[in-house]
Structure formats: C-alpha cells, structure tokens
Amino acid sequence: MAFVSSGPTLTATAVQRQPAPEPTVQLQIENRVARVTLNRPPLNILDIAMMRELDAMLKHAIPQSDFLVFQGAGPKGFSAGAEIADHQPRRVGQMLKAFHAIFRRLAAADCLTIAAVHGFCLGGGMELATFCDFLIATGSAQFGQPEIKLGCFPPVAMLTLPELIGMRAATDLILTGRQFGAPEAQLLGLVARVVPDDKLDEATAELLKDLLGLSPAILRLTRRALWRTHAADFSKRLAAMERLYLTKLVKMSDAQEGIRAFLEKRAPSWLGR
Fold first, then answer.
1. Which of 107, 162, 185, 217 could be joined to 190 by an S-S link, Cβ 3.0–4.6 Å?
2. For residue 77, is it within any domain?
3. For 116, how many CA atoms within 13 A lie in the half-sphere containing its CB?
4. Is 147 an active-site residue?
C-alpha cells in the first residue's frame, strides 16, 4: 500500500509493484570462469550507467576468475558500441572516464579474456571485443569502427589496432569507418576463430576446455609478459588520447555537427573546422 496526497486528505491507494528491470550487465562465475553478458538488447549499446556497472562487475569478478568470457544478449549482436547521446559535450568527459576505466582494469588483470561475438560488433563494442586475448566470431558477425562518420575517433582502437593488425590496416579501418565481416576480420588477425552461427557457445566451451587443461599460473605469467612487451604504458597512452579527444576533438565544429546530425537522423553538413 502507498499513501497518495489528494489535497489535505491522505487516501490509501493500492500500487501494483512492477518487476525490477533486468541488470544491463549480467555475471555468472563457475569454476573460476566468469561469464559477462552485455544485456541491453537489441544492440547492447553501452551508456554511461552500463559502463559503470560493467566496471564494477569486473572489479568483483577478476579476483575470482582465471578466465573472463564476454558475450552479448539477444540475437542481433555483441554490442553496437557507446550511446551516441553520451558523446555530446556536456557528457562526453563522463563517458570516456567510465568507458576507459573498463580497459584500464582489463589491462591490469591477470585473467585471460575471451570475446564470443555474434551479429553486430561496432564502435566501442569492437574495441572491447578486440581488446580480449581471444575473439571467437560467428560467420555472420559484422565489425567496424564507424566513429569517423560521426566526426570523432575511437581512442582505444587508435592504440590497439596498429599493434594488432599493423598501421596500414588500422588506418584503413579507422579512417574509413567501413563495416566488414568475420572472414576479413580473421584474415586481418582480429579474430582467432570463425564458427557457424549456431556453434558459438560450443566453440567457446572447446576453447575454455583447452585452456583449463593448462597451468593457470603459467597462463597468467605469460599473458602479463606479453602485455609488458607489446602494450607497455597503455594507461599513460590512453590518457594522452583522452586529452586529445577532450581538448581538441570535441571542441571542433565538425565533431559537434556529426553527433547532432546522427541524433537528428540527417546527413551531416561538414564545415571543415
């Protein structure tokens, strides 16, 4: 029961309780394997609240896990990236801080990470998936860093893609923003395994079975050595990319026009500044 004010008189009114909404990030830990599900279908778009929820969940899961598996809820995709409305000047600083906290935490973690990707894997979703140690994708999965089409750039991918696939291929993907399929992603070296659309769970389980048969201590040591060799000073370089984004990019007229045009569902009118 709840009391609703009606003038000076309090009237008892029955209130129907609504079921609590499902969390936008779900976590299941079993046998040192943490399964993290992005749960905001249809496209699991990451807004600021969801980013913070994901980071808090990783803080809880990482000390209890040898393996982290990321997956997306619903049939349409892993994640289509960050919420475009959060790229507006008044919120973009909060968005970058929340999003990049996830990558800083993963970079400092000892556990191995796996992305199980189906459907759309775009923008921040692709940054998260390709940041993982292993990426398994269905044959119909679609990848892309389309930020340039909105008048901005992907800070994490700017650091990771040249390391993963070389400067020439990274330049192509970042500066065109083109979408590409799982077979090309595998040829580039972004995807470890491409599997039939109905075999993603099975392929992920097979990879975990192989890894679980190895020494977790040696796996952690080896992963740490790889990161120190090939991704030294990641957090410091990410901070520099954030500064460029916030002090230069978001103040440009074309960056603001790109976001406005997307939200207004029209083609952008670039001003060249």
1. 185
2. yes
3. 27
4. yes
Name the active-site residue from 127, 202, 206, 257. 127
The sign of the dihedral angle between the CA atoms of 110, 223, 195, 180 is: positive
Other CB atoms within 10 A of residue 114 CB:
23
Query: Which of 6-10, 13-17, 124-128, 172-176 is least confident?
Result: 6-10
The answer to whether position 14 is within a domain reads: no
Look at residue 271 and give its three-state secondary structure.
coil
Residue 128 lies in a domain: yes
Domain count, the chain: 1
pLDDT band at 16 (very low <50, low <70, confident <90, very high): low
Most distant CA pair in the chain: distance in Å? Answer: 73
Look up the domain containing 35 and give its range: 22-197+223-263
- Asked whether residue 254 is domain-assigned, the answer is yes
| Three-state secondary structure string covering 173-217 | HHHHCCEEEHHHHHHHCCCCEEECHHHHHHHHHHHHHHHHCCCHH
Q: Is 202 an annotated catalytic residue? A: no
Helix (H) or strand (E) holding 23: none
Active-site residue (options: 147, 206, 242, 257): 147
CATH number assigned to the domain comprising residue 136: 3.90.226.10
Distance CA 161, CA 19 (A): 42
> Does the reported pTM lie above 0.85?
yes
Nearest residue to 41 via CA among 80, 3, 97, 87: 80
| CB neighbour list of residue 91: distance below 8 Å, 6 or more residues apart | 48, 85
